[in-house]
Design a protein that fits this description.
Elements: E1 6-8, E2 20-23, E3 27-32, E4 35-41, E5 54-61, E6 67-72, E7 81-86, E8 91-95, E9 100-105, E10 112-117, E11 124-129, E12 133-138, E13 143-148, E14 154-159, E15 166-171, E16 176-180, E17 186-191, E18 198-203, H1 234-237, E19 240-245, E20 249-254, E21 259-265, E22 288-289, E23 297-301, E24 307-311, E25 320-322, E26 336-343, E27 349-355, E28 359-364, E29 369-375, E30 381-386, E31 393-398, E32 403-407, E33 417-420, E34 428-433, E35 440-445, E36 450-454, E37 462-463, E38 472-478, E39 496-501, E40 506-509, E41 519-520, H2 521-529, E42 538-543, E43 549-554, E44 558-563, E45 568-574, E46 580-585, E47 598-603, E48 608-612, H3 614-619, E49 625-627, E50 632-634, E51 641-646, E52 653-658, E53 663-667, E54 672-677, E55 684-689, E56 696-701, E57 706-710, H4 723-733, H5 752-759, H6 780-785, H7 836-839, H8 849-854, H9 859-874, H10 881-889, H11 899-915, H12 919-929, H13 932-942, H14 947-952, H15 958-974, H16 978-987, H17 991-1000, H18 1004-1014, H19 1020-1035, H20 1039-1048, H21 1052-1059, H22 1065-1077, H23 1081-1097, ...
Parallel strand pairs: 45-49
Antiparallel strand pairs: 1-57, 2-3, 3-4, 4-5, 6-7, 7-8, 8-9, 10-11, 11-12, 12-13, 14-15, 15-16, 16-17, 18-19, 19-20, 20-21, 22-23, 23-24, 24-25, 26-27, 27-28, 28-29, 30-31, 31-32, 32-33, 34-35, 35-36, 36-37, 38-39, 39-40, 40-41, 42-43, 43-44, 44-45, 46-47, 47-48, 48-50, 51-52, 52-53, 53-54, ...
């Protein structure tokens, strides 16, 4: 479980001839998406002994699109330089030590496809592109040369290792050329033989051609390449070249002869191991490596991912050795793209391979065995889940259609990762391990599938027969609910699987019968709670660990808490107001059992809220409670929260993942940010705390990476704000845009499979019903698109279906039918003639053009017509054949003979019209003929019906008309004229069909108009229309119109809810008013309160009071806000508040008189609060509201509101003469300011509410001895404590004590007060060097004490409460012991790690380590350092302290008390500064208390200072 950060990187890019490389000494780099990942290999990797010697050490970031080539400089002394080429058109030169760009060029105009750093020339980088252009770039002189050899696509190029000017280039069509760049790219050899893509070119490592004994063929006269004999220059003299091609052959070429000398055909090997999806057709990629020290051997890839070592000594027979022949499952399972040799520092010869199976493998060339594998991710890391049973087993849901299960505890292998792809087939967006069953992993995908894997078997998963309609967001195991829970004990599982999908539904699946039906839990929720209104859209589900409580997060930001067995709703949390992405319950094994009631949640807002549900769950209310106040608020992130996880090792420690690109660790109890991780280059999607190492967290993001990181190694403590955040944004923008590149034609090398998975990881995950993931391309737009203002008729960006609000049919009304006497035009489209013809005024087209033209022939012809006609009309007998033939031929005479001949004429004319593209004229001829039905049928078949044809249809009868209108409506739908089609349907009384047609094509406005006009008001169709349109508008952020829809459907509750969704004050106010009008009082009051709180943040006092006026039940809150306003004005007048506020109410400005009197006067005049009954009613309203205790990080506005709530209760209690309650409320307000470290406010509360001290309260409480309550004692003590500090500060500042402390303590960072929390007070201020305001003041001051001061110092005796000192001491002991125990556990875990990873140091070492950690901080005295405590001793101390605490009466424990020892130290300090001011008696008492109770670390050294 090494204490080292780790990276699971993105997959190396596919289908690139050279996008990985390595240099001697052990550095390997591979291109993945838009960057290059660097891996240190060998002894220098610093891996834990016993694990594979490699480590991912960094990333070269700068390209904006896919990196297509990567090559190191192989020149000693500059191994740190490398070059990359990218689809963004640039070639960049990098220094890997600084990970920065040295220089770059953008010479290529087309996509770069090949790149190589010359092994002969130190500063030459050669690159080629898809159009055949080669650029040579000399780095040192920043010079370049361009060669255009062949107009073909270059696939690969390799510079000669022996001659500085030779470069071999392989093309897509199988041609290989060798060029000389010194002679303007002259072609030395053109090597023909391959007939498909050249994937790889390797030069023989030895010059000359003696290394291979290849038989010289008989006809070995010199070749004549390029048609001219070339003398045997040293260039051509000799070297072999090997090429690998898609045509399944490897060819060895001789350069001296310019021809092929050997062909190796790849063997078909039996597939070994089934780690591959057989349905995926893969192509071949043939890559080569010619080992330096073995020129007679050649390594090549093969069909299925195997690697072969060819023996070239025997050219007449194919002889090869298979890599990793003995061990099963070590080979790649898919094609291999790149092979890189690497020599480590300890001189091992290794070979690294990248493959389509997303693994990088390292091979030992001596044994041909696989040394190690680095797995990688081909998609977003959507989900991380640690198995609760199999410790350290981390499941990762990835967007490449595979689940990874990473055994993070494996001792032999840092990256022991198994892949599961069967039955997945799409992005894995949700995972959840079964809490008790080993290896049982539930998964959900982006296409709505839910399945169960047994990770210990090779069986395909079981898939639930019920799919979600959209992405699965979350899975959770929980107790069975009805109907599954109704079976007998043996008939039902102990746990069922719950899945929440993007359509907003939670399904319960029975794991025993996944093939059976899954149940929508909304039905049970509706029945149990008899809910009438629309249930919210669910986006998250989380079960409390004990299985008794379920939390559902919703799209509107609410969280609902349900109780088993029937999901009774006990509480709704109205906090987020934007879609809830994640909910997590605190673990059950904290040091305090009540922590398990903490629930953290994150939404599309950047704030995380933690709620403590202990009281709600335990009180089990009859009607659901609404919570609007969080227990803790964690703010700091600047974008939506996608995931939160509690640390299983600490109390109340939380990690969150956000779209701002960082993960943040929080101490939730103190609301404090602890550390911020910024290693990702994308938006974080998931985060998980290691179950074994308290320091270690895993996070996944849309940068295709999973990082393991240590909290102790992070330099930042909070998320970046402002500028830094913008840098991260830029970093993210440099991520690839998943939009396809503009290429004219996709070349055949574009990988089909990669298109599906590798590149396009950009669909929206929580779609607009809840975007977790709108793809890399849609960054800033997405957040805004959630709530656009509503422009009329414009569909919002987020929706796919247009929400059209203007009648689209307008465009189609233009085809009006004009009828004039001569010709009836019935045109749907303009005729297909030249447009010029339309511009001239033309005569209307003739209906009988052929007949007309035949009447314009020569005179002879016309005369002949007359004769034929006469013969036909006047021969009484049968016409002879000749005459009939003449008549047939002269069809135009039909006009003058019988009807049969006329019909024939009409037929010929009609055919002519159709051929010339004038169907409307043909239709009219048919009408003349009287065949209306035939016309309609023909027109319908050809899609040529028109308004006028349909208008004539009634002539042919009622049924024909009905049929024609329906046919026309269908035709109009094909032409996208839906509104017109609906109108026609209405004309034949098909109202329901018309409404359905409009609805299904998203013409909701029109559909509603029709339905309202034509149907009964109570028709359910109408309500359905309103609700459907409302839901779509809501999804697109058009909240006001959606609210109108819900009101139309008589769903007033939903209308108010949707209006409040925007969350700004105006929307909330309107929503509250609306809820009030429709009688939803509870909702109305909660919205009005929210509105007032929003206005409060903007310090708009008048507006806040206006909002609270809306509801009678908020009368109490109005009093609180009134008091808050008066107090703020009071503080502002005394210049204790920075923010000035303009919009005070008029009554806030009068400033005379004591504060409490002013408050009651305003209450009386403004709120007409006079009688005790009214006071009592207000008191009851406010008493039910409980606010959580504050921390140092509580925002001051929130703190003031909570304090004023307590002060209002105090004033109300005084008015009804309930003095006990008044004292308690006042004490609560004081303790709140004390707990939050806000000394200023505490003193203001004292001066405003106890101007004369506490004596008048004492009298009111009655008999001194019997009834003076512990609460009063505490209040008095805090009062004295405040004055004591003021007095002490006035001494140390040489100035009168009035308001001195104001400036120091004001900004909630009181130099002293901050550090004194009740339990673990660390009174640094007493260490005179530490935080004394003036460290170099003289030791003694001659200060004359006023009577008042003397009196105050005497009353300080009240602070010396022995029982409180004893209680506080026990509490400090408990805290200290718990801290020590936690530290021991951490040390023990660390020592275990060391043992398991190395072969175990001496036992003593780890023990010593643990002991050292327990020794006290440096300021302890030396003897103590060497006395570590044993575990039994600690346990004993803890038990004793807890027993002591238990013995104290509740009254003492309930009410806080100032730290007694702190007060003793301050008095002794005052005594030493101002002798005589503190009586001897008091000094002695203080010293006694310090000696008796100052035995904890915190106080030890101060006690020694003062008591010796």
């Amino acid at each position: 479980m090494g204490q080292d950060p780790r990276t699971l990187p993105p997959s190396p890019n596919w289908y690139c001839a050279r996008c990985s490389d390595a240099v001697p000494g052990g550095l390997f780099g591979f291109a993945a998406r838009t960057s290059v990942f660097l891996v240190r290999v060998g002894p220098s990797a610093g891996a834990i002994p016993g694990t594979p010697p490699f480590r991912v050490i960094g990333e070269l970031v700068g390209h904006t699109e896919r990196v297509s080539g990567f090559t190191f400089s192989h020149h000693p002394g500059q191994y740190n330089l490398c070059a990359t080429s990218s689809d963004d058109g640039t070639v960049k030169i990098w220094d890997v030590e600084t990970k920065a760009v040295v220089t770059e060029h953008a010479l290529h105009q087309h996509t770069i496809s090949a790149l190589h750093w010359s092994p002969q020339v130190k500063d030459l980088i050669v690159s080629g592109d898809e159009k055949g252009v080669v650029f040579c770039y000399w780095l040192n002189r920043n010079d370049s040369q361009h060669h255009f050899i062949e107009p073909r696509t270059i696939f690969c190029l390799t510079c000669s290792p022996h001659h500085e000017d030779l470069v071999a280039i392989g093309y897509k069509d199988g041609i290989v050329v060798i060029i000389d760049i010194s002679k303007k790219g002259e072609v030395i050899h053109r090597l023909r033989g391959h007939d498909d893509e050249i994937h790889s070119i390797a030069w023989c490592p030895l010059p000359g051609e003696d290394c291979l004994s290849i038989n010289q063929e008989e006809n070995s006269e010199p070749e004549i390449p390029n048609g001219k004999v070339i003398e045997q220059t040293p260039v051509t003299k000799g070297c072999y070249l090997a090429t690998g091609s898609k045509d399944q052959t490897i060819r060895i070429w001789s350069c001296s002869r310019g021809r092929g000398v050997m062909i190796l055909k790849l063997p078909f090997l039996k597939r070994r191991g089934g780690g591959i999806d057989p349905t995926v057709k893969e192509r071949l990629w043939l890559t080569l490596h010619w080992p330096k020290d073995q020129p007679t051997q050649l390594v090549s890839s093969c069909f299925g991912g195997e690697l072969l070592l060819w023996d070239l000594t025997q050219s007449w027979r194919r002889k090869y050795t298979l890599f990793s022949a003995s061990s099963e499952g070590q080979n790649h399972s898919r094609i291999v793209f790149n092979l890189c040799p690497l020599q480590t520092e300890d001189d091992k010869q290794l070979l690294l391979s990248t493959s389509m199976d997303r693994d990088v493998k390292c091979w030992d060339m001596a044994t041909l065995e696989c040394c190690w594998t680095l797995p990688s991710l081909g998609g977003f890391a959507y989900k991380l889940a640690f198995s609760p049973v199999d410790m350290g087993c981390l499941a990762i849901g990835v967007g490449d259609g595979m689940i990874r299960v990473w055994n993070t505890l494996s001792i032999k292998n840092n990256y022991d990762v198994k892949n599961f792809w069967q039955g997945v087939k799409s992005k894995v967006t949700a995972l959840c391990w079964h809490p008790a069953k080993e290896g049982c992993l539930a998964f959900g995908t982006d296409d709505g599938k839910v399945g169960l894997y047994d990770t210990y078997s090779n069986k395909p998963p079981q898939i639930s027969s019920t799919y979600h309609k959209k992405t699965v967001y979350t899975l959770a195991w929980g107790p069975p609910l009805p109907p599954i829970s109704l079976g007998g004990e043996g008939d039902r599982p102990s746990l069922t699987l719950y899945s929440c999908g993007g359509e907003g539904i939670v399904l319960q699946h029975n794991p025993w019968k996944l093939g059976g039906e899954a149940y929508d839990i909304n039905k049970l929720i509706r029945d149990t709670n008899s809910i009438k209104y629309k249930l919210p859209v669910h986006t998250e589900i989380s079960w409390k660990a004990d299985g008794k409580i379920m939390a559902l997060g919703n799209e509107d930001g609410s969280i609902e808490i349900f109780q088993v067995p029937n999901l009774k709703l006990i509480c709704t949390i109205q906090q987020h107001h934007k879609l809830v992405n994640t909910i997590s319950w605190h673990h059950e094994h904290g040091s305090q059992p009540e922590l398990s009631y903490l629930m953290a949640s994150g939404s599309n807002n950047a704030i995380i809220y933690v709620h403590n549900l202990k009281t709600v769950i335990e009180s089990n209310p009859e009607t659901p409670v609404t919570i609007t106040e969080p227990y803790r608020t964690l703010s700091g992130h600047t974008a939506k929260i996608t995931s939160v996880a509690w640390s299983p090792h600490h109390d109340g420690r939380l990690v969150s993942a956000s779209y701002d690109g960082t993960a943040q660790v929080w101490d939730t109890l103190r609301e404090e940010p602890l550390c911020n991780f910024r290693g990702h280059r994308g938006r974080l999607l998931c985060v998980a705390w290691s179950p074994l190492d308290p320091d270690c967290i895993y996070s996944g993001a849309d940068d295709f990476c999973v990082y393991k990181w240590l909290t102790s190694m992070q330099e930042h403590s909070r998320p970046p704000q402002g500028k830094k955040s913008i840098e991260l944004e830029k970093k993210r923008l440099s991520q690839p845009k998943p939009k396809p590149k503009k290429k004219k034609k996709p070349t055949s090398r574009a990988p089909v499979k990669q298109e599906v998975y590798d590149g396009n990881e950009d669909e929206s995950i929580r779609e607009s019903s809840g975007p977790v993931e709108n793809g890399v391309s849609d960054q800033e737009g997405e957040e805004e698109a959630r709530e656009p203002e509503f422009p009329s008729g414009v569909a919002s960006v987020a929706s796919r279906e247009p929400v059209t609000c203007t009648p689209v049919s307008l465009g189609f009304e233009k085809s009006k039918v004009t009828v004039n006497n001569k010709v009836t035009l019935l045109k749907k489209e303009p005729p297909k003639e030249k447009p010029e013809s339309l511009t001239k005024k033309r005569k209307a087209r003739s209906m009988l053009p052929l007949t007309t033209s035949l009447d314009h022939r020569s005179k002879e012809e016309l005369h002949q017509d007359c004769l034929v006609l006469a013969t036909a009309k006047h021969s009484k007998a049968e016409l002879n054949k000749e005459v009939s033939a003449d008549l047939e031929e002269r069809f135009h005479l039909g006009l003058f003979t019988d009807r049969g001949a006329l019909y024939r004429m009409i037929e010929v004319e009609g055919k002519g019209h159709l051929e010339n593209g004038h169907p409307e004229l043909f239709h009219q001829l048919m009408l003349w003929k009287g065949d209306l039905k035939g016309v309609l049928q023909t027109a319908a078949e050809r899609g040529e019906l028109t308004d006028s044809l349909v208008a004539m249809a009634p002539v042919a009868g009622y049924h024909v008309w009905l049929w024609a209108v329906e046919a026309f409506a269908k035709q109009l739908c094909f032409q996208d004229q839906y509104v017109k089609a609906a109108s026609h349907l209405l004309s034949i009384h098909k109202v329901y069909e018309a409404v359905e047609l409009l609805k299904s094509n998203h013409f909701y406005r029109e559909a509603i108009a029709v339905a309202k006009a034509r149907l009964r008001p109570e028709d359910p169709i109408l309500k359905d229309l309103y609700l459907t349109w409302g839901a779509i508008l809501e999804k697109d952020g058009h909240y006001a119109v959606a609210a109108k829809c819900y009101l139309g459907a008589a769903c007033a509750y939903d209308a108010a809810k949707v209006l409040s969704k925007k969350g700004d004050a105006a929307s909330l106010k309107t929503a509250a008013e609306l809820a009030s009008i429709v009688g939803e009082n509870e909702l109305s009051s909660s919205l009005a309160l929210r509105c007032a709180q929003e206005l409060l943040l903007a310090r708009n006092w008048a507006g806040a009071q206006e909002a609270l006026k809306l509801h009678e039940s908020l009368k109490g809150q109005r009093l609180v806000f009134c008091l808050l306003e008066l107090l703020s004005k009071h503080l502002e007048d005394r210049q204790l508040l920075e923010a000035k506020s303009s919009s005070y109410n008029t009554w806030a400005t009068g400033t005379a008189g004591p504060f409490v009197e002013r408050v009651t006067a305003v209450w009386k005049s403004t709120f007409s609060l006079e009688s005790p009954e009214q006071y009592q009613a207000a008191l009851q309203q406010l008493q039910s509201i409980k606010y959580p205790s504050p921390t140092n990080n509580t925002p001051s506005k929130q703190l003031l509101l909570h304090i004023c709530h307590d002060l209002t209760l105090a004033v109300l209690s005084q008015q009804v003469a309930s003095w006990d309650a008044a004292v308690e409320a006042l004490l609560r307000a004081v303790v709140r300011s004390y707990d939050s470290g806000n000394f200023t406010i505490m003193q203001e509360v004292h001066s405003a509410f106890l101007p004369e001290g506490c004596d008048h309260l004492k009298h009111k409480l009655g008999e001194p001895q019997s009834l003076i309550t512990p609460a009063f004692k505490s209040l008095e003590a805090f009062f004295i404590y405040g004055h004591l500090y003021e007095f002490w500060w006035s001494l140390s500042r040489h100035c009168p004590k009035s308001s001195v402390w104001v400036r120091a303590a004001h900004r909630r960072t009181a130099s002293v007060e901050q550090s004194q929390q009740i339990n673990n007070a660390t009174p640094e201020e007493t260490d005179s060097g530490d935080s004394q305001p003036e460290p170099n003041r003289p030791p003694e001051l001659d200060v004359r004490l006023t009577e008042e001061s003397k009196q105050m110092l005497i009353t300080c005796k009240e602070l010396f409460s022995e029982k409180h000192a004893s209680l506080q001491n026990s509490q400090r002991t408990v805290a200290e012991v718990q801290e020590t125990l936690a530290e021991m556990i951490r040390q023990h875990q660390k020592s275990q790690v060391c043992k398991s990873t190395t072969n175990g140091p001496d036992k003593n070492e780890s023990e010593q380590a643990a002991e050292q950690s327990l020794s006290s901080p440096q300021n302890e005295c030396k003897e103590e350092k060497n006395q570590p405590l044993s575990l039994p001793e600690l346990t004993k101390r803890l038990t004793e302290a807890n027993e002591k605490i238990a013995k104290f009466p509740e009254s003492v424990k309930i009410w806080p008390f100032p730290d007694v020892l702190e007060c003793c130290l301050i008095l002794l300090h005052i005594g030493s500064q101002c002798p005589g001011s503190v009586t001897q008696d008091m000094q002695q008492q203080a010293q006694e208390l310090l000696q008796k109770y100052g035995n904890t670390k915190v106080y030890k050294r101060y006690c020694e200072t003062f008591c010796t």
